[in-house]
Amino acid sequence: MRYLHEGHEETGLPWLADIALRKEILPGGAQLDAAAFTEAAFPGGLIQSGTLVGRMRADEQAGIGFKPARVAPDVNPHEQFYLVLADVVNVKEKSDVELCRHRSLVRYNYLPGWATLAAGAKAQIHSLYETTQGNRYVQPGYTGLAQ
Question: What is the domain partition of the chain in residue ranges?
């Protein structure tokens, strides 16, 4: 699994603490609503691994994809929430997405934008996933960059 971190392509998902990645993937995949991901908030259409997305149950029934999450106390908060498992490089070109199954172990402080994420979004993540603060050990000489 590859992801972007501070402009570098890396392997692994620092925010996902579980080792056996297959069981964290929500079967069947999902779609994103590309129009909901604005250029201002998601430059180049990049949706980073670990981004919280959501939708209403009515959207699901109508076949409308996931959008950037709206959580309480936002107006009209979403009813379904998931973390994006792998980067979506350009949502305007490809809106397929893999989602992380609820109850997976997540290192919340490695999620993109965690420091500035709204309190409601943080609470939603803590309620849906097993969360722990990450403290990643890096071996001397390891660069973390994808080959």
Answer: 2-132
